[in-house]
């Protein structure tokens, strides 16, 4: 094997011939070509820094170290190629959380349909619960995207039929529905915290970051709905509900 070098470097090699030659397995030639002696290898070259101290020790051997990774690349047709350090417990927990988000979205959609009725006609509450339903579905979709990115399989499960009537003899429909929404938000937040405690999430920062964004949104929703519940309790079932509804609408 021949490596072309500059004339200046050839003169340096010539001046260091003999025992002081820093490249004992290398001989220089007059036509500025560096030839490796028989039996030597590129790894036999000793690199030297500017201060003439040898740099020893191999830190990274990509072609050797990748061999063990190649053994981990699946060859079966249905196996994910992207999956890496993603445990089964985490995959199952994400699928459960997706089901939770879709169930809550379904309940909020039923609330939207109720308040949008012509004989209820609280358009502000209808708008609020419709937007809440979309937000829950978006959370489910974010978890689905993350599942696919990590090489997991999304497995959608059955969702339950929600209530269709939200009127309450003592509280009225607005307060009852908002208290139900607050309870749902707290329940989903508890489920998210359980997902947060799964071994994979506690040891993989990118997973924590993706999940914490959803948890932050949930905490903000709990605070907002808590204030709505407090306001509706002050208002009661009277005319103030209409003004509250107009506030949500506008």
UniProtKB/TrEMBL annotation:
Keyword match Oxidoreductase: yes
Protein's cellular compartments: Plastid, Chloroplast
Alphabetized UniProt keyword annotations: Chloroplast, Iron, Iron storage, Metal-binding, Oxidoreductase, Plastid, Transit peptide
Assigned protein family: Belongs to the ferritin family.
Catalysed conversion reaction: 4 Fe(2+) + O2 + 4 H(+) = 4 Fe(3+) + 2 H2O
GO MF annotations in UniProt: ferric iron binding; ferrous iron binding; ferroxidase activity
Protein name in UniProt: Ferritin
UniProt domain Ferritin-like diiron: residue ranges: 84-236
Subunit note: Oligomer of 24 subunits. There are two types of subunits: L (light) chain and H (heavy) chain. The major chain can be light or heavy, depending on the species and tissue type. The functional molecule forms a roughly spherical shell with a diameter of 12 nm and contains a central cavity into which the insoluble mineral iron core is deposited.
A cellular component term, taken from the record's GO annotations: chloroplast
Keyword Mitochondrion appears in the UniProt entry: no
Lineage: Eukaryota, Viridiplantae, Streptophyta, Embryophyta, Tracheophyta
EC number(s) from the headed UniProt entry: 1.16.3.1
Function: Stores iron in a soluble, non-toxic, readily available form. Important for iron homeostasis. Iron is taken up in the ferrous form and deposited as ferric hydroxides after oxidation. Stores iron in a soluble, non-toxic, readily available form. Important for iron homeostasis. Has ferroxidase activity. Iron is taken up in the ferrous form and deposited as ferric hydroxides after oxidation.
GO biological process: intracellular iron ion homeostasis; iron ion transport; response to oxidative stress
EC main group: oxidoreductase
Residues at which Fe cation binds: 101, 136, 139, 185
